[in-house]
Design a protein that fits this description.
- The chain is α/β, with parallel strands linked by helices and about 600 residues long.
- Among the domains are: about 20-335, Up-down Bundle (ABC transporter transmembrane region fold); about 445-515, 3-Layer(aba) Sandwich (Rossmann fold).
- Helix content is about 60%, strand content about 10%.
- The longest helix has about 55 residues, at about 235-290.
- It holds the Pfam family ABC_tran.
- It is a multi-pass membrane protein.
- It is found in: Cell membrane.
Length: about 600
């Protein structure tokens, strides 16, 4: 994955040129709601039209109601004018309410769609993505950035369109009212646009940087909160608080730069706009004194000029919001544009019908390096053939490549050379769900979700019945301790399973894998967190579970692998010894040394 997915303090100069070009990426999310946008546009037109009718009504009131020539009819004219004004206000109220409801609905709906799309895209990424992107930053983009987009879709677009209509309609009516004064004010407004555009680009750059700093702080907080026992055991609470505080202060400093730039933009826009209008109105006042225009026309001109000025001020404010949301949009589109290197084949193959004794698994001259460490081979020219129903144990020192094997079996990564086959089919030709549905895994680091025991085990097979869940729990020696929980299988296990011991979490994971009932079972230190009694129970359960399926076991504790059909000894990404426990001990190599150390220590402890 490119570094574009990680936070950066700089904005790409290519994207900085087209300030609002990033919003084009939102079009796929907006298109399904063309009808709602149409209704909002109709409401906008009516609201803008009603607003633009008000100054004309005032002109009629002044010229026909207060003019000496109106005579006795002045009262009737004033009454009619105010009745007309109330009718206009009624239209304005209904249209504004309709606009608010429609665009607010659009903002919520589009934001929900974006959040769902980004999350659905992220969960399909390979582990390579998460090697370079912190989960806290992803959450920041899904929450904070989408909130900014919600403000644009649900408010800013509506405000921008409304004020654009008011600006254009107001300019037309200004020229209808007094072409000479309008020409002067238009020329002066052109001069206002230049600083707004210049500062707008600066605001956008700072907005992107501000969002990046917020994401950094969120990522740090997420990482620390997930490691609180470690933080507290090393008494690093104050250190981590200070580190987070420094990150927050950095985000605050960047945000203040953005706020100062926006404040300056607003100051310049309002000062120039209203300064221009005051000058033009001064000219208009002299025109009334000279008799070249009426008081009603000047009043109408003043109101239209106020509408134009207010719309320009509102547009400058909206532009600042849009600049900020443009940065957020870029960050979300970056996530959506990331392509996982692990893709389903265009025409997936099907697995052949297998016998009842598990799956055949083979590695053929596989060489693999992790993307984050391309210069170091985790596996090098490794070949291994496992027969259906065979139990193979993989042992060796840390860093030998044992866990890497499991990640390749599950196709979290693809090898740089060589191939891996399941039942004779290259796993790159299989649909990812087909491949992974055929594999059950008990990882070394057990993941327990914030749900009850029943749902945690049912994660192995979503459509399993309660009875099937309980049967799997009994096989994994988990049924008894679950039954002793306050609410049994309905007991909430806490975030990351904090209410369970390490051994209990491990047995939940084993039950989950057994419920899945796959032809290929991967056990990564499956009994590492168990006490002697639990290990004995789980070991017998696993031995029963291995019947009728292929099993690959990673273990540092050699007592758990002695009954394997074959033991593979790995070192530096290569297979260095193969055989049974007895044959490898008699060989006197690496395995024999490991066995001597472990069993000697066990003998000493006894």
């Amino acid at each position: 994955m490119s570094n574009s997915t990680t936070s950066t303090t700089q904005t790409d100069p290519r994207t900085a040129k087209g300030s609002l070009a990033a919003f084009k990426g939102l079009l796929p999310f907006l298109r399904p709601y063309r009808r709602q946008f149409g209704l909002a546009a109709i409401a906008l037109v009516f609201a803008a039209g009603a607003t633009l009718a008000i100054p004309y009504a005032f002109k009629l009131m002044i010229d026909q109601g207060f003019s000496p020539a109106a005579g006795q009819g002045s009262v009737d004219n004033v009454n009619d004018t105010f009745l007309g004004l109330f009718a206009v206000a009624s239209v304005l109220a209904v249209a504004t309410a309709a606009r608010f409801y429609t665009v607010s609905w659009l903002g919520e709906r589009v934001t929900a769609d974006i959040r769902s799309a980004v999350y659905a895209h992220v969960v399909t990424q390979s582990p390579e993505f998460f090697e370079t992107t912190q989960s806290g930053e992803v959450l920041s983009r899904i929450t904070t950035d989408t909130t900014l987009i919600q403000a644009v879709v649900g408010t800013s677009i509506s405000v921008a369109l409304r004020n654009t209509l008011l600006f254009l309609g107001g300019m037309v009516m200004l020229f209808v009212t007094n072409p000479k004064l309008s020409s002067i004010i238009l020329g002066m407004l052109v001069l206002v646009v230049v600083p707004i555009v210049m500062f707008g680009r600066r605001v956008r750059s700072l907005s992107r940087a501000s969002q990046d700093r917020i994401a950094d702080a969120s990522a740090m907080a997420g990482e620390i909160l997930n490691a609180m026992p470690t933080v507290q055991s090393f008494t690093h609470e104050q250190i981590e608080s200070a580190r987070f505080g420094k990150s927050v202060e950095g985000a605050f400093a960047t945000a203040m730069k953005r706020i100062r730039a926006r404040s300056l933009l607003t100051l310049i826009a309002i000062l120039l706009v209203f300064g221009s209008i005051v000058f033009v109105l001064w000219l208009g006042a002299h025109a009334v004194l000279e008799g070249s225009t009426t008081g009603g026309e000047l009043g109408q001109f003043i109101l239209y000029a106020s509408i134009v000025a207010g719309s320009v001020g509102a547009l400058s404010e909206v532009m600042g919001e849009a600049q900020r949301a443009a940065g957020a949009t870029e960050r979300l589109l970056e996530l959506l544009s990331v392509k996982s290197p692990i893709q389903n084949p265009a025409m997936p193959m099907a697995l052949p019908a297998r016998a009842a004794n598990g799956a055949a698994l083979a590695l053929n001259d596989v060489t693999f390096s992790y993307p984050s460490r391309p210069e170091t081979a985790a596996l090098e020219h490794l070949s291994l053939h496992i027969k259906p129903g065979e139990t193979v144990a993989v042992v060796g020192p840390s860093g030998a490549g044992k866990t890497t094997l499991f990640q390749l079996f599950l196709r979290f990564y693809d090898p740089q050379s060589g191939s891996i086959t399941l039942d004779g089919v290259d796993i790159r030709q299989l649909d990812l769900h087909t491949l992974r549905d055929a594999i059950g895994i008990v990882p070394q680091d057990t993941i327990i979700f914030s749900a009850n025991a029943m749902e945690n085990i049912r994660y192995g097979r979503a459509n399993a019945t309660d009875a099937e869940v309980m049967a799997a729990a009994k096989m994994a020696a988990a049924h008894e301790f679950i039954e002793r929980l306050p609410e049994g299988y309905k007991s909430f296990l806490g975030e990351r399973g904090v209410r369970l011991s390490g051994g209990q979490r491990q047995r939940i994971a084993i039950a989950r894998a057994l419920l899945k009932n796959p032809p290929l079972l991967l056990l990564d230190e499956a009994t590492s967190a168990l006490d002697a009694e639990s290990e004995r129970l789980v070991q017998s359960a696993l031995e029963a579970a291995m019947v009728g399926r292929t099993t690959v076991i990673i273990a540092h504790r050699l007592a758990t692998v002695q009954r394997a059909d074959r033991i593979i000894v790995m070192e530096d990404g290569k297979i260095v010894e193969t055989g049974t426990h007895a044959s490898l001990v008699s060989l006197g190599g690496i395995y024999a040394n490991l066995a001597a150390l472990q069993f000697h220590n066990v003998h000493v402890m006894h």
